[in-house]
Amino acid sequence: MAPKKNKLGSRLQNSYLLSPITALDIYHAQPGRSLVLAGEDTYLKVYHAATSKQLGRVKIFHSQPIHGIHVSQTNNTETRILIWGGQSVSILPQASLQTLIQGGHVQQPREFKAPDWIYDGILSPYDPNSGVLVTAHNEIVPLRSTPDGQVLTFGPLTSPSRPILYSANLSWPSAESVLVAGGTVFGEIIVWKYYTSPTPERPSQWELLYVFTGHEGSIFGVSISPEIELAPGTKIRVLASCSDDRTIRIWDITDSDCSTSASASSTNENGPSKDPAKALADARETGFGGNSNSEANEEHQNDSARCLAVAMGHVSRIWHVKFTGRTNHDSPREMPIDVWSFGEDCTRQRWELRLDIRRWEDTKAQNYITTKESAPIGILKHCSTSPCHVGKNIWSAAVSMASEEEQPLVVSGGADGKIAISGGQSKNENGTFGSNYDDMELVLSVSDVMQSVGAAAELGDLAPEKQAKKSAKEGFQRYAFLSEQSFLATTTSGRLLTGTTAKDNITWENVDMSETVMQDLKSWNIIKSPAKGLAVLGSGSGKIYLYQQSRPNTIQELTQLPNKVSDIICLEDPSMRKQPNTWTIIATVLALDHAFMSTFETNPTTGETRQVSSRRIDLTPNFVITAAAFCNGKLILGSRIGVLAVQRPKGSDGFETEQSRKDCKTKDAVTCIIPLPGSTETDSFLAGCRDGRYRIYTLDKDLLHLQHEISPPLGMIEGAWFTSSPISTTKNPELTLYGFRGNNFIVWSETSRQELASVECGGAHRPFDTISPAHNPGQLKLVFTKAAQMHFYSQGRQFLRALKDGGHGRELRAVAASASGSKYRYVATAAEDTTIRIWQIDDTTTQASNNTYGMFKPLAVLERHSAGIQQLKWHGDSYLLSSGGQEEFFIWRVTRLESEYESLAVVCEAVFDDKSEDGDLRIMDFDVSPLTGNIPRDGKGEEEEKMIISLALSNSSIKTYIYSPSERGFRLLFTGRYTGACLTQIRHLDIDVDSIGDIHVLTGSTDGFVGFWSASFELREGYLYPAQFEYELDSVVKLHQSTLKSLDIAPAPDAHDRGWLVATGGDDNALGFMRIFLEEALNYEWEVKRSITVVNRARVAGAHAAAITGLAFVQTSHSEQQPKKEEAAETRQFLLATASNDQRVKLWKVELRGAQFKTPPKVSLLDNQYSSVADTGDVEVIPPSAAAAAENGVGGGARLMVGGVGMEVWDLV
């Protein structure tokens, strides 16, 4: 049947979009105010670079994603924005841009069509109404526009040759010419000039300059630098290229007389010139590798010699390469040229290009006639690698400098929808970019430090050469920060050295101490800072010493312990909070079955410190304390092998073990225990471990409950803290973790899922200490030992931050919204990147908000699946279920943390273990229902809500299980086998426990059939027992010609039966509908037998232009209660939303009419909108908030969410 089209206005309105960032540019609006312009599908969005605030957005194209943005910004003309995508072109005038920046509404600009696919565009800096475009076939398209951008005309195409390009870049060096660089599919780079107007001396509008060869793969990125001053009177222009071969090459394209034009003579003063016809034929050649034309090879030999430097980087393809735009590299002398590359591996890398200026000048003078054995003129040095996106691909990048006094702004946009940004900071009065935490990196040996403080007393009588020899044997041993400006270091000879940081240097002082103390610390020492300006030292003899910054030349002995002090743990004792100037430590002693907790008080006037109390901590065998904290009056301890222990007070002078628990699967140490801020009611704490995971526990009735277990991108977690704002009391604390990953020390924000710092240190298992301000974890000071030397690193600000948060880096395959009616509403998404993300829906977010996440606030990322995720569903608000390849099926328990730290606690409660022999099937779909009725727990009368879970597997079988949260196990009830077709969908229709005792299931498959299954069971002693273990396939109904891709069910009862309306979407682009009901009848044994009856069905052919991969009933006109008999013939209306691979979202009205709704459904198309989401994976209805439901009535206020390559939300209006 053909759908009836409705003439009503638009019913769907887009309210949220998270899509790959496909275009970026930077607009320096005024000094100190830079804006980032981003293309997100068809929308242009403007962000404030410093505050991350989205200032405005405007739809540019009707249904074409934006591929490029060019900001025409000069001192003499007004700012205009050239925007292109595919063949579409638009110009945004300055008035519209200013309105957009101020948050006003801007009308969609006119969309024009160029004659070919566009790779780059530029507006003239000399004439604001003219510009040029370069196409995928190396053609220049001139354009002229009116000042308001409402009229745009294209000129004739010009090209020296028409190879297929993968990349292109334009530069406008003079009023009469445009420089063009194109990277071809087959690894060549063509550089030529386009002349805006022909002259009698130069009738042709193009001039071929160079054809570069050398890459061994397609050219994915080319970038023309500005003219760079290397020295007074010495300028160079270079071209950077990147390729499928993972190399970056730098080429010299400085203007010279050796270029080739269409009218060039056969010779010039430098020798034979290139034959244009041969050059163009060479450029058009197909295939990689050398050219069989030896004459052409000879002609191109000098071009290839213009390659100044080559470097290999990234672990996969390189998409973009950019220059900073700095033009003066003479001050400081021979300053390196910065180059940035962006790759498929989601990293960006910084390189420094250093040139031998004298060799370059000599080689240039010889017209680059060199031998193959000649060394490169330049060196491309790798400086840093920064992971900035997840998944795959950085699709856009921009690098720009507002002035020579500012750091370059580096912006990247990924397939994950995130915009990452760094730089843009101005120099301060000291001439640096730092703050109180100055950017600094130093490497010092003990001898360097000793020379700065002067020789020690015992070295004073030795000859200088003996002093150096003795100092060379000395090394740094431990470190402890006393404050943000100073730290203490101990050496292997027992010395104490204090370092004070200032600007770009460290001032050192040697702490005077007695020979006895020095010898005691020489063999072994451990050092910790329990409070600002204090350091506690433990020695091999069991002594505890105190160093006070206020008394720099006094080392006070605090106490004597029975044996060697193996570790010192600083902790906050809640019982001492009312006593100022007190601090508490736990000292562990070698080979003892107990530890010592000591509290000390420091007199602020005299500086004297006394011991207030000492308590003994009894330990179980082999328990070595590595972390400790108080929680609800109990002492929580972490051990070296991953065990947690709860200690209760033992009288007034000790603690004893009450219980212990180990969730770490390895023997890695617990490194930190941090109480959750504001969690006094639930008594929750966080425990970090060297197995790379952190866990959150709740101490309830003297029992430890695991609430959260997650593995952030750290190999080892060494510490954690929650941020606190010195100004705002309303901002929630954020969780920051630090540890090691590979050879790097990493600081990670778990709240924002961002890497705050990465320092190459050689890896874990080395002495180190770090400090950061409590309100700004992006600032950092780190001191550590590497290769017997002390390394000091200081970071003044977070190097890389999110201008806009993203999501999954791969296609979404499943979307699930939690049930309505709860205080918090969640959406879970699962993607091809094997991760699950849980978001909180924030309806209060507006465009004026300063957050970086928009409507969906990220709360948790789950990374346990190892294969592609197929399906995702909520069971209430407390359980999330997920399925995927390799027969992976997980049940996640989700809990809202009752603390100031706003997050979810998620733990994998159960793992499906009833796998096939090979364990390589995919769980294509599943359904979950509560097992309601009189179901006692373990037959003891205590009720527990169990789950009925049915799985559809890729081997054409279905399985139904009972899951019990208390047992955390799956008990098989029924199995069934379909034909050779693969099952793609499964739904529970009805489960009756108390009366008849049966289950009815619906399935969809790749042969286009819908199948109806049933099985019976009985209840005995609190357990369900199947009457037979095999499902019966009662009937099948053909709805589609091929695979059934999507399915949804809405209750549709009438006065006589319990029924449903089934909607299906197929690979045949059609919609299918069935009205079914559950019919009761007596079998031959006079038993009530229920079966599914199909009342009617309908099919809408060509509902979309491609496969319908997602659909959902958005709203119905009736409740789920049985209607009255007199209402039996009334019309029931349903709203159905569908999404397809044709990137259309459609809204349909489905009407059921007639007695028992036997008349086939009447289907009308209400709306048809372009969708920004490609490769649609799922469609889900987001239930309205309680306020929206109260305002709009039953079903009102619901939203539609579409997931695929990105995700979007539609409001029903």
From TrEMBL:
Supply the name of the protein: WD40-repeat-containing domain protein
Q: Which Pfam families match?
A: WD40
Key words, A-Z: Cytoplasm, Repeat, tRNA processing, WD repeat
Organism of this sequence: Rhypophila decipiens
Q: Where is the composition biased (Basic and acidic residues)?
A: 275-285
Q: What is its main location?
A: cytoplasm
Q: One Gene Ontology cellular component annotation?
A: cytoplasm
Gene3D superfamilies, A to Z: YVTN repeat-like/Quinoprotein amine dehydrogenase
Which Gene Ontology BP annotations are present?
A: tRNA methylation
